[in-house]
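Regression check, NAP case 316:
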Amino acid sequence: MSKQTYDVVIVGGGPAGLAAAIYTSRRALKTLIISKDVGGQAALTDEIENYPGFESIGGLELAEKFKAQAIKFGAEFTLMEIVGLEKKGKEFLLKTVDKKEIKTKTVILAFGLTPRNLEVPGEQELTGRGVSYCATCDGPLYKDKIATVIGGGNSALDAAEFLSRIAKQVYLIHRRDEFRGEQILVDQVKAAKNVEIIYNANAAEVKGKDRVEALVYKTNDGEVKEIKTDGIFIEIGHIAKTGWLDGVVDLTEGRKEIAISRDCATSQPGVFAAGDISDITYKQVVISAGEGAKAALQAYRYLQGDKALVPDWKKK
Ligand code: NAP
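Current build output:
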């Protein structure tokens, strides 16, 4: 990490951030990627089958390919958390969690979303001791055990399918009677003989002394039931942790995602955003990569002094 001013600092090392870095570094912009991890949410996906050019590839493997490509073109990569962004004259100052400051002419925010908590008794206490938010990471610990997945979107379906190949028994608990995820995933989960789907039910309590032992759930008819389980995988969507950007860039009402123009400009000239943390509709690896490329090209044009790029998307 240099003390000099970067042309671009990219916050986030998932598909959006890494694709942005490939583009900025190929345009010879001094580029730094700062991220808490490599690959973000994509890296937690066991198998990606809808990224063009790869019939099937592991999420982490794909992210590592993106990263290697960005580094090959000259981008720097640092594992670190950013907790503040401030405008200082014509430049920006990014503050790291360990109180370092990084100077840059432009910023691309691409740090993705964070798993949503269930907020039931026992969840917090037993996180890491049977409660998990990542089936790919922790699933292999449940060989021949009982695993329970909560949620009804693609992440929950992916997790249930993955776990069905490891655990002896998988429960999938969804609060409605219809899944939100893709039909192909629904079909795969229904075809797995060791998956029992519990519809119209909400988790109410995680039970266990030192580790997860059981899950209490309540059906929509008001019945309270308990199942024995060794692990609980919470896959109920994601939230935007953008509190530190409040007042710096415009956030959307409700979800607090970063509001962007169709060219990835935020309300703050010189700051761009891409991928899941922005208010785009579809949160997909291929889309995030494309958005990252767009943000990079916009940052490049901004640095070239293209005044037409100052966002005017708020005006009608
Ligand atoms: P999601 O699509 O937002 O689904 C969240 C699920 O959790 C929904 O079924 C929702 O129920 C349920 N839920 C939310 N809050 C809950 C609560 N408090 N208690 C119980 N259930 C709750 O989130 P996701 O599955 O993490 O997916 C996020 C994005 O990533 C999506 O765009 C998805 O397509 C994408 N993704 C794609 C793939 C793939 O293509 N294979 C894999 C993973 C993720 P309701 O349905 O009742 O709202």
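Comparison notes: The domain at 116-234 is CATH 3.50.50.60 (FAD/NAD(P)-binding domain). The first strand starts at residue 6 and ends at 11. No diff flagged against the previous build.
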